[in-house]
Write a structure and sequence with these properties.
Helices cover 38% and strands 16% of the residues. The protein contains nine helices and eight strands. Helix 2 runs antiparallel to helix 9. It starts with a strand and ends with a helix. The protein binds adenosine-5'-triphosphate.
Length: 224
């Protein structure tokens, strides 16, 4: 049975970086479905310049419309308040058949702050992760690079010293805990912060977000 990927984020707004890395992971891990899960309120980011949850959800729906194996979940938005991923993971795992592998997908920037997430230790008992590289680490994110060393140090000092890197699998494994897969996605130098800054400066965001998202932003006058 093929697995599913849980891809949470602020998606403020969804951009082509999100879509491209999600597609690469979906294909690379033969996932049946990637769930894009926008948060209601991000615990780690301020609310300045945060578009309304309904707008972020609408943009996501427009962005994934017609895209095979991509689905939007409004679970966190319906829950309201601060969105804690652990609650989302637990809820998804309850809904899914036990045999169906479930992966948490996140960028390396998000992973390197993982110790600040609510009850972060529990994730490593309940769900394998797919850690996706981002441009700051790419294209030379290999075992030898500073980025890879930082990741190893982070995993072994902040998460659990029992994790060991297995090069053949490009994965950190632990005798009792869930594996942490690295996935070297083709670098996509796009961030939502950069997009919001371009809009504020009156610059075009064509080619950074899907056309339907660009139209939505312009029509609603978001991020100006
Ligand atoms: P912001 O710039 O507002 O912080 P963002 O572009 O990082 O936003 P988020 O919604 O916070 O977007 O990201 C959700 C997840 O997607 C995070 O795990 C993040 O690391 C990952 N991600 C976002 N953009 C990329 C990208 N270009 N390449 C790889 N991963 C990405």
């Amino acid at each position: 049975m093929n697995g599913i990927g849980l891809f949470g984020g602020t998606f403020n707004p969804i951009h082509l970086g999100h879509l491209k890395v999600a597609r690469a992971v979906c294909d690379g891990f033969c996932l049946d479905t990637v769930y894009f899960i926008p948060c209601a309120q991000p615990p780690h980011k301020g609310t300045e310049n945060l578009a309304d949850a309904g707008d972020r959800l609408s943009m996501l729906k427009a962005a994934v419309a017609g895209k095979a194996r991509f689905v939007v979940s409004d679970m966190e938005i319906r829950r309201q308040g601060l969105s804690y991923s652990i609650d989302t993971v637990v809820a998804f795992k309850k809904k899914m058949p036990l045999a169906r592998p479930c992966f948490l997908m996140l960028g390396i920037d998000a992973f390197l702050e993982f110790h600040t997430w609510k009850t972060y230790e529990i994730f490593f008992d309940v769900i394998p992760m797919i850690i996706m590289t981002r441009p700051a680490e790419s294209p030379a994110f290999s075992r030898e690079t500073a980025g890879a060393v930082a990741l190893k140090t982070y995993i072994q000092t902040r998460i659990d010293s029992g994790y060991e890197y297995v090069p053949e699998k490009d994965c950190y494994v632990h005798p009792q805990k869930q594996p942490l897969y690295l996935y070297h996605v083709p670098p996509v130098p796009i961030s939502a912060t950069g997009i919001r800054a371009r809009i504020r400066r009156g610059e075009s965001i064509s080619g950074l977000v899907p056309p339907a998202v660009e139209n939505y932003i312009l029509k609603k006058g978001l991020y100006v």
